[in-house]
Amino acid sequence: ASAMAWGSRSSHLWNLACHSAGGSLAVQRGIAVLAHVLRDPVAGRRWRVHFDVEAFLGQFRGHVLEAVQHPHANHVVKRLLDTMPSERVAFVAQELAGHAVWASRHKFGCRAVIRLVRHSKACGWAGDCAKRIMHEVLSSAAELSMDEFGKFVMEEIIENGIPEHREFIVSTLHCDLARNACHEHASFLIQRALRGVGGAAVAHELVARAGMVAALARSQFGRYVLWDLARMPAHAQAVGEALKPLAEELQHCKQGRKLIADLSADKSLVA
Question: What is the pTM of this model?
């Protein structure tokens, strides 16, 4: 297939993307072709290539909200955001404006928001469009951190977002640290925060706060945070000392026994 061929079929692309998994995959192949041509230093300068790209993308303008929640078309949006330059796909952010929190909570929609994190680093108006989506998301950071799908958006920002956005999420998690560290979804983000910028402060607070290590040890999800804490050289000894009085209690449940076994095998933390 060629970029020209896909341009000639542009009137059918939206329907094809929604029709079936095979149709979606065919459109994604077309995106790959166009993205490759755009990256070519010679072909990328030809006016016809840019015409084909705009004809192709035009089929999806006005359909972003529908596409990101569609079981097949959402993959097309993913591919666009993964392969196209920010200025070509800024319309995705523009159409998601005002709906970013909803999309972050959606099992398919979160995929588009996750990919807009990378585009938020772009310069110019295209980057500004993506940043506006990030600002919407950050306004609900506390709620999204506790959401089944929203947590993945928060994770992407923590690991790959703009520094001030990363810091904002870590600060938000820190505001209710005891609850977040034991929460089914937010604890996942505490683990990510421990490994990144600002992680040392989070770790220190978890270890220093009275009863926190014990609370983590008794929590189904907090134990994962505790395991990461115990593997940090600066805090391993303190975690071990705090766990020793709980050894007998933890032996009475399967997860507690596993925690003791894991920590003992790794650091000989529990006597």
Answer: 0.88
